[in-house]
Each structure stands twice: as structure tokens, then as C-alpha cells.
Amino acid sequence: MKSFAVIIPTYNGEDNFQTLMQQINEQSLHPEEVIVIDSSSSDSTRAYAQEAGATVITIVKNLCYLYTVISIN
To answer: Burial, 49: exposed, middle or buried (Cβ in 10 Å; 0-12, 13-18, 19+)?
Structure first.
């Protein structure tokens, strides 16, 4: 079976993050890695990402808010 990763660009996404991770975990295929690109969130997005229960979560934190398009490039 091929492996894959899920990439989640986010900025202040704590309201939706737990639901998103639950939906990812409910899929029939599970990602090998979940990569969260945090564009300098001021809420608890980073803490939720670290506690999410995915196999691996890599947090990339930009120094200031960089719009989603810039964050994922």
C-alpha cells in the first residue's frame, strides 16, 4: 500500500482542528504523516496539533502571519 501525508495550512484554526483530525482518522486510509503549517496563529491551534493523535505532526511556525498561499509554498 502506498503511503501519503496530509498537509493542513492553518491560521487560528482551533475551532475546526479537532473535527478535522477526527475526520482524517475516520477515513479508511490513514496518512503516514500529518503536517500542520501554522501561519503564526494566536490561538491554541499549535497545542491542538501537538495533541491530535496523528502518527507524526510537524509544526512549521512562521514568524508572522503569511497568508495561506505563501505558507504552503
So the answer is: buried
